[in-house]
Amino acid sequence: MIYTVTLNPSVDYITEVANFELGALNRTASDSKFPGGKGINVSRVMKRLGVESSALGFIGGFTGDYVKDFLTKENIDTSFITVKGDTRINIKLKTNVETEINGLGPSIANSEVEEFFKAFQKMEQQDIVVLAGSIPGTLPSTIYNEIISICRDKEIKVVADVSGDALKEIISEKPFLIKPNHHELGELFETEISSIDEALHYGRQLVNQGVENVIVSLAEKGALLITGNSSYIANVPKGKVLNSVGAGDSVVGGFLSAISKNHSIEDAFRIGVASGSATAFSLELCNKEKVEELLPQIKIEKEGEVK
Ligand SMILES: Nc1ncnc2c1ncn2[C@@H]1O[C@H](COP(=O)(O)OP(=O)(O)OP(=O)(O)O)[C@@H](O)[C@H]1O
Ligand SMILES: O=P(O)(O)OC[C@@]1(O)O[C@H](CO)[C@@H](O)[C@@H]1O
């Protein structure tokens, strides 16, 4: 089973305002709501691609009920711990420049954290744990390391889609896969990364430090997969970006869905990139038809050879 961990889920409120004016009353041209949080997005994409997962994390209040009910309607298994406060609402403002306001999220008590950790007792070696998204302020910043340490004892693969200090901490734990975007990778090395070559250089350093696989996404510029013995460079298809929220999570969801169907790592990478672009070109997360439509447009270059 694949378990996705979203410590701080959200209701994503995606709203379009034609010419947003600070300090004025703005009215929306369109709006929609979806359950959000990176791990939850990974679970939803995998479900659309025919792979089951179980979503773990903390939810609470009416917004938490919304997230849980939405996932249940999509037949996604959840084992959330219920907390007293409300799950946050994250605002995704589509205007001249895409702008996001992510909420703090509810407080989480120690007893609730203990309850959360019980889910890991039943996990087995063939399981995969996906750690995705930020750590809420009321949780110890070492919580991902604690989870990874349990997974290490059980020889469970860990996939991490996190940024900032949490990403820094995770590198030394040698996860199976990390997926930074080029900004997050640059932040790790205190530099700016703007080209595939630079991303390849720094991504390779992470593999040398023990991370098994690194996918670096560079939005419209393409994506890279660096493994222990090879590097793969993917182009991304051209299209109209309708909503980039969850595009990175879709790369992880697409990749893992293919890995769990025993595709080669190169094929899994292609499906991951197609899923990311399919989400970018959709109003919501990608669906299977859109992923399959884009797949033939993605060319993978392996050490100078185009396939
Ligand atoms: N303009 C674009 N055209 C085509 N594909 C895109 C575009 N932007 C994003 N994508 C797709 O989405 C994937 C992830 O994008 P990006 O590098 O922006 O990751 P991210 O910053 O983690 O995403 P997000 O935080 O928006 O979920 C890319 O690898 C690509 O497949
Ligand atoms: O605040 P975090 O945990 O870093 O990110 C949360 C979030 O922005 O990430 C997802 C898109 O990747 C959204 O569904 C969600 O609102």
From TrEMBL:
One of its GO terms (molecular function) is ATP binding. It is an enzyme of class 2 (transferase). Keywords: ATP-binding, Kinase, Lactose metabolism, Nucleotide-binding, Transferase. Transmembrane segments: none annotated. InterPro entries: 1-PFruKinase, Carboh/pur_kinase_PfkB_CS, PfkB_dom, Ribokinase-like, Tagatose/fructose_Pkinase. Its EC number is 2.7.1.144. Residues 7-282 form the Carbohydrate kinase PfkB domain. Pathway: Carbohydrate metabolism; D-tagatose 6-phosphate degradation; D-glyceraldehyde 3-phosphate and glycerone phosphate from D-tagatose 6-phosphate: step 1/2. PROSITE patterns: PFKB_KINASES_1 (PS00583), PFKB_KINASES_2 (PS00584). It catalyses: D-tagatofuranose 6-phosphate + ATP = D-tagatofuranose 1,6-bisphosphate + ADP + H(+); beta-D-fructose 1-phosphate + ATP = beta-D-fructose 1,6-bisphosphate + ADP + H(+). GO terms for biological process: carbohydrate catabolic process; D-tagatose 6-phosphate catabolic process; lactose metabolic process; small molecule metabolic process. GO terms for cellular component: cytosol. The keyword Transferase applies. Belongs to the carbohydrate kinase PfkB family. LacC subfamily. Belongs to the carbohydrate kinase pfkB family. NCBIfam families: 1-PFK, pfkB. Catalyzes the ATP-dependent phosphorylation of fructose-l-phosphate to fructose-l,6-bisphosphate. This is Tagatose-6-phosphate kinase.
